[in-house]
Amino acid sequence: MKKYDVVIIGGGPAGIVTGMTIKKQFKEKSVLIIKEEADGLVPCGIPYIFNLLGKDADKNKMGHKPFIDLGGEVIISTAVKVDKTNKLVTVKTGEQFGYDKLVFATGSIPQIPDFIQGHNLQNVFYIKKSYSYIKELTLEISDLRNIVIIGGGFIGAEVAEQLAAANVNVSLIESEPTCFSKAFSPELSRIATDALRKTKVNVLTSTVVKEIAGFNNKVSHVIISDGTKIEAEAVILSIGYISNSQLAKETGLALNKYDDIHVDNYGRTTIKDISAVGDCAQTFGFLTGRSDIIKLASTATAEARILGHNIFGIRIKKSSAGTLGVFSTEINGLAMAAAGANERSAADVNIDLISAKFSAPDRHPGTLSGSSDLTVKLYASPADGSILGGETWGGKSVGEIINIISMAIQKSITVYELVSFQIGTHPLLTSSPVNNPIIRAAEEIIYKVLQIQK
Amino acid sequence: MKKYDVVIIGGGPAGIVTGMTIKKQFKEKSVLIIKEEADGLVPCGIPYIFNLLGKDADKNKMGHKPFIDLGGEVIISTAVKVDKTNKLVTVKTGEQFGYDKLVFATGSIPQIPDFIQGHNLQNVFYIKKSYSYIKELTLEISDLRNIVIIGGGFIGAEVAEQLAAANVNVSLIESEPTCFSKAFSPELSRIATDALRKTKVNVLTSTVVKEIAGFNNKVSHVIISDGTKIEAEAVILSIGYISNSQLAKETGLALNKYDDIHVDNYGRTTIKDISAVGDCAQTFGFLTGRSDIIKLASTATAEARILGHNIFGIRIKKSSAGTLGVFSTEINGLAMAAAGANERSAADVNIDLISAKFSAPDRHPGTLSGSSDLTVKLYASPADGSILGGETWGGKSVGEIINIISMAIQKSITVYELVSFQIGTHPLLTSSPVNNPIIRAAEEIIYKVLQIQK
C-alpha cells in the first residue's frame, strides 16, 4: 500500500488547483489525486460545447497534465471509503492509499427535481460536469429538433442560447419573472433576459413546469402551469447543483444545512487532517458571514490556493473569511457581470445600500469602430461609502471590469477613495479618462450622499 | 465685469473635469472655463485621426458640452494676465473676469528640440493637442509619401503605426535601443518595439538625428548619426511635452525644476485661492514622493476630480499623494500596459523588487475562437510582498487588467493577499480561474520569496 503526504479525492478545478499549489510550493511532498474519469471538463465551458466549440467535448477538456508535470500522481478510480483512524482511502477496485492529509474535492452534482412528474423519463438530461456524460449527451441530442430546458440560471440560459444558435428549437422555462435572478439585480436580470429573448430561444418566464410527459417512457412534451404543451424530444434540467458530500458524510465529517462540508477559513473540516474545498465545501456570505451556497469554479480555485499553501500549517493568511460571488456571462453578444450585493440580495439580509450607475462608450472617442456602450452600477454603504457590490454590462471588457469592482469590495474601498483612483486608459482599449464608468458611478453616489446630508 | 466663483484657464481634460466636478457637486457655484479653441481633441485619440478615424479630426473632438449641460460657462479666448491681488483674469480681447478661486489647467506643449539643426524648417510638425493645428496637419500631409517621425514614445510610435497603415512610408527614429523605454520595462519595451517592426514602419532604434535637412527652407530629408539620409517630405517631432506654465510664472506661482507648477496634494499652488491641475502641475512619484513628470490625461482627470471636490475646502481625502503612471497602448493588434515600477525604473531610484510573470489564454478553453495569449508580470517588494508595479500584454482585456494591478498598487495589496483574491471568470470573457495570470504571477513571487528564505 502506497502512502502519500496528501491524497485529494476529486479532479475538478478545486482538486487540481489544490494539488498544483501543493506541488508547486512544496516540491518534496507526494500528492495523489483520485479522480473518476481520465478526462475532465472546463466547467463553465460546457455550454459552448453545444455550438461554439463545434459540438466537440474534446475542445473543452481540462486535464491533469499541469499537475503531473509538477510531479503529482493521479489514479482513475472512485473513492468509496475513508478510514480516518488508520488514514486510508479505499477505491472501487479495493486498492488502498494511505494519507497524511486528506482533501475532499468531490464537487457538486445536478439537483434532481423529484417533485416534477416525469423527471426520470428517457431523454431527460442534466448538465453534469462529466466528460463522458456530456460527450454522450452531445451525441444523443445531435439530431433532435425540439428541446426544452428547465431553469434559467447561467448554465440553463447559456446552453439554451448555444443550442438555439445551432438551429435547435429551444424553449427555456423559468419560474421567476426573469432569468439570472439569483445572481443579478432586478435591473440586470431584466436586461439579461431581454438579451436572451433577442436570440431564437423561446423564453418562458414566470412559468412553472407541471409535468414532463412521455410516450413509451421517452420524453414527448413538457406541460406548463397554464396547461400548454411544449413539444420536446429531450429535456435538459438545470435547476442547480448540490454538494457531492455522501462520502464525507459516511466518513463522519460534519455537514451544514445545505449538506456542504463544514470547514473553517482554511478548508479544515471537523476531523483533523481532513480538508474540503470547492463545491462540496461550505461557504460563508462575504457581507454577512452566514452559510451561503456559492458553487463557482472561480471561488473553488481561490479556496484551493489558500488550502494548497496552508495544508501543512497556516503560512498565508486568508484575506477574507467570506466568499464573494462574482458572476459573468455573455448572452447574444452582451457581456454582463455582477459581484457582491445588489438591491435584492441586500434587502434579503437587511443590508442598507445606496446605488448609482454611469454609462460611457468602452473606447474613446466613441466614434472608433468596435466601441460599445459600457455601464457600471455600484452599490455602496450609505454610512461609510465602502463598495458592497457592483454590476457592469456592455462589451467584453466587462469580464475584467468586474474584477476591479471585486477587488474594491474585497478591500473595502470607498467611493471617496475611488475619486482619486488612478487608472490607465487608451482609445482602443478603454473608456475615456473623463468618463471612466467606475469612477463616475462612485461620484454619483457621493453626490447622492451629500445631498442627503444637506 | 462678471465675477465667478471659479475661473478655470484651459479646456483640456483637466479643465473640463475640474469644471464638471464642481458644477456636479456644487450646483449653485458659478464656473467659467477660458479655452483657446471652441473645439478640443481627445488627447490620446490624436494618433488615430491619421488612419482609423479616417483622417478626420472631427471624429476625435472633445467638446465642453457636458460642462455646459451642468450649467458651466465657457469663453473662447486666451488668458493673458492674472491679477492675483484683485483676483482678475484678463483675456486677449482685454475683457476681464473676476474669480474667487482660480484654476490653471493650461496643459502642456510639445518640446521643441532647438539642438537639432533644421527643426524650424517648413513641414516640421509636432503633435500639438490643438484641434485647428491637427486638422491643418492632416491636410498638409495628406498627399505626402515619405514622413520621418522623431521620438519613439507612445505618441510617436502610434502616429507612425497609423500613418504606415495609411500607406505612407514612415521611418521612426529613436535614440534608445528600444521604443517605449520610458514607460515599459526592458522586456516589454522589446516586445512593443518588435510589434512595431512587424508593421510597415521603418523602425530605427539606437539612432540619433544629426540634422533635419531642407531644400528651399522646406524639409527634404533627415540625416542620422551614421550619415544615412532618409527622404522626408515632412518630419513629425514627438520627443515629449513640457508644462505650459508661462502665465503661471508671470503670475508669481512657484514652479519646480521641470517648470511644472508647484502644488500640494489637493492642487493648491503657493498662492492662496489659485490651484493647478493636469499637465501644467507638478506630480510626485508614487513610490518615492519625488518630483516626477507624468503627463497623462488619466492622471490629469484624477487630479481634476480631487480638485473639483475640494476646491472650497477639503472634504474628500486624496487616497495617495503620489501619481501612479499607468500606460496602455496597442501596436499591431498587441495590447500592452504598465503601471508603477519595473526593473529599470526601480533601479533608477534604488527600490528593491522581485518579479514574476505568468501567461495563459484570455478565454477558456483556449480553443475558443478569438482567444489570445495574455501575460501578466508583477513587481513586488521582497520585504512585505506589496505590489509595486505590473505589466500585461495580449488581447484587449489588457486595458482593464492593468487597472486591477493599478488598484493593487494604490492599495498596497500584497502577493499574499492575491492568493485569496476572488475573481469572476467566464469562458468568453476571461482566462480560466485555474490560470488567472495576476494570481498565478503573485504565486510565482511567493514561491521565489519562500525559496530565498530557505
From the spread of the alpha carbons, the general shape of chain A counts as globular
Through-space gap between termini of chain A: 74 Å
Question: CATH homologous superfamily of the largest domain in chain A?
Answer: FAD/NAD(P)-binding domain
Outline the low-pLDDT stretches of chain A. Answer: none
| CATH fold type of the largest domain in chain A | FAD/NAD(P)-binding domain
Total E-strand runs of chain A: 26
Number of helices in the DSSP assignment of chain A: 12
CATH level 1 name of the largest domain in chain A:
Alpha Beta
Q: What percent strand of chain A?
A: 25-35%
Mean pLDDT of chain A: 96
**Global Rg of chain A:** 23 Å
Helix-residue proportion of chain A = 25-40%
Number of domains of chain A: 3
Give the biggest beta sheet of chain A: 7 strands, mixed
Determine the oligomeric state from the structure: homodimer
CATH architecture of the largest domain in chain A: 3-Layer(bba) Sandwich
Using brief descriptors, characterize the structure shown.
five-stranded parallel beta sheet; Enolase-like, domain 1; FAD/NAD(P)-binding domain; 3 domains; 12 helices; 454 residues; alpha/beta; homodimer; seven-stranded mixed beta sheet; 26% helix
Write a short abstract of this structure.
Chain A is α/β, with parallel strands linked by helices and 454 residues long.
How would you characterize the overall build of this protein?
The structure is a homodimer of 454-residue chains. In chain A, 26% of the residues lie in helices and 28% in strands. The first copy, chain A, is globular, with a radius of gyration of 23 Å. In chain A, the strands form 7 sheets. In chain A, strands 1, 2, 5, 6, 7, 8 and 19 form a 7-stranded mixed sheet that branches. In chain A, strands 10-17-11-12-13 form a 5-stranded parallel sheet, covered by helices on one side. Chain A has a 5-stranded antiparallel sheet with strand order 22-23-26-25-24. In chain A, α1 packs parallel to α8. In chain A, α1 links the parallel β1 and β2. Chain A has 12 helices and 26 strands. Chain A folds into 3 domains: 136 residues, FAD/NAD(P)-binding domain, CATH 3.50.50.60; 128 residues, 3-Layer(bba) Sandwich (FAD/NAD(P)-binding domain), CATH 3.50.50.60; 121 residues, Enolase-like, domain 1 (2-Layer Sandwich), CATH 3.30.390. Chain A is an alpha/beta fold and 454 residues long.
